Amino acid sequence: MHPERNWWQRLRGRFTRSAAAVETRPVPGEGHHGQAEESLRALLDDPQVPQAVRSSLAADFERLEAMLGKLERDELHLAVFGRVSVGKSALANALLGENAFEVGVLHGTTREATPRRWQEVAGSGVHLIDTPGIDELDGEAREQLANEVAAVSDLVVFVVDGDMTTREREALVQLARTERPLLLALNKADRYDDEELARLLARLREHATSLVQPEDVVAVSAQPPPLRRLSIDADGHEQAEMIPQVANIDALRSRLIEVLTREGRTLAALNASLFAGRLTDAVARRIVLARRELAAKVIRQYCIAKSIAVALNPIPVADLLAAGALDAALVMHLARVYGLPITRREAGGLITTICAQLAALMGAIWGIHLVASALKGISAGMSTVLTATAQGALAWYATEIVGRAADRYLAAGKSWGDLGAKRVVSDIVASLDRDSILREARGEILRRLRNRDALEP
Per the domain annotation, does 197 fall within a domain? Predict the structure, then answer.
């Protein structure tokens, strides 16, 4: 079975079984319906979601609000999909019993997805949604619209009018990945005799294996052409009469009502919850991304501050003490970015852990750092500037590593994970372009030193 479909069937089965197990519940899926409403409302009203994240996901939050309204109004949405002119609109009209959707033959006529109320099933108002053909001239945009409609629909009817094409098979697979239950309707069944129809239905079930249940592949005639009946009048002249034919959609209607009665409310609740779950994941990713971006800015600010402080401090070793204080402040600042405030003592312990790994990896660099600190106090003129710049660049580089390691630790919820501190620090050192960072640091330090000298009397 297709892995996505198999997953959906298991999840769907779990919901429906648990709903059936509660005998005191008068309406199937009632408990899940209420839980889904609470879940959506909690996400919409969550004060922990930053406004910037809400703005970046505005369309998704609008859709979430619309889905909540649909649940509160106790609505179910049924979408009709298919190629151009296979009879999607005609089928929707036949279900409705009125010509609510425009029917045409050239390039398709459906321009937008508009819901129309069909009937009430098991206490829920069912709405039909006709959609643009998936291969119209505006194919990519229309297909995107179709998939967006599927994402907020509770059930999808995929319409074909013959053996399935490669494009239709691809579209069916794509729709199955939206995690919506599917029915496959063979329209214009009146064109085939009984033997041909049986073979065609068997072929379609083969195409839809693992995507659509065999019993959900049905034949319909949404708009059969009129019959031409010839007769002879009293004068012996031949007369032709066109006899309108009644649509034959009983198999589809019965199957829809059966599915919606048994699990319609559960499907609505499950689909809304799945969407809310995906949005929750998207929110979490955006928050993490926003925090990472802010953390990167904070690390750069501290790199500049520490490198300048080290370069300007004329007292040997004292600059290293000042650098240590800045590192502690950096870690505490990063902790606030991630909403995990820590004490100065905890920050110091984290820095000690990181530096212990750095010492093992980069002992030579720390030796150069200490020598440069001593040389700065006894050098003069340009040599002092060069030595100070080199030392400041090394301080920048060290802060970059400390900041990134602390960022990784905090982003994981104050944890080094399975790899441990040694591997994390090693990976960070390996991923950095040391020469590039040192060049940037030296350039920034020299620029600031020159600006400072220019301002002095």
Answer: yes
Burial class (CB in 10 A: 0-12, 13-18, 19+), 334: buried
Mean pLDDT of the chain: 78
pLDDT grade for 453, boundaries at 50, 70 and 90: low
Highest mean pLDDT among 37-51, 125-139, 331-345: 331-345
Asked whether residue 66 falls in the same domain as residue 166, the answer is yes
pTM for this prediction: 0.59
30-44 vs 3-21: helix axis angle to the nearest 10? Answer: 120
CA 144, 147, 152, 158 torsion: positive or negative? positive
List, for residues 14-68, the tens digit of each pLDDT value: 444 444 443 344 444 556 677 888 888 888 888 878 787 888 888 888 888 888 8
Answer whether residue 28 is part of any domain: yes
- The residue type of 230 is L
Q: Is residue 292 part of a domain?
A: no
CATH number of the domain enclosing 143: 3.40.50.300
Q: From CA 275, how far away is CA 271, in angstroms rounded? A: 6
Q: How many CB atoms lie within 10 A of CB 103?
A: 18
Order of strands across the sheet that contains 124-130: 114-121, 124-130, 75-82, 155-160, 182-186, 217-219
Range of the domain at 371: 313-455
